[in-house]
Amino acid sequence: VLHPLVYDATGRKMSKSLGNVIDPLHVIDGVGLDVLVANLARANLDAAEIKRATADVRRQFPQGIPACGADALRLALAASFAPDSRSVTFDINQAVKFRQLCNKWWNAVRFFGDRC
After folding, report:
1. pLDDT value of residue 109
2. Cβ(57)–Cβ(36) below 8 Å
3. Dihedral angle computed from the Cα positions of residues 112, 113, 115 and 116, in that order, rounded to the nearest 10 degrees
4. Global pTM value
């Protein structure tokens, strides 16, 4: 499957018209809450959707999105792919956990690389 459906952590389809889309660059580089809210304000949404989406963003990302890196994003997307339903349920917390895993792998490789 080349283009699976992507759902957010609550199970809703990610859609620009719902305001629940996460920019991959925000996951890779990290972004503050103020930028996320400003992006929603510039979106082509009606006032009620902006209000609801802003409340969701403030609830889900009170500190913004932490920088996870490209490898952690790739691992999170690959791990959350469900081949039977051809969908991806993306959760930013999973990307954070994979960032920590990638950091452990990097430290292990450096440790054993120095010893061999």
Report:
1. 93
2. yes
3. 110
4. 0.82
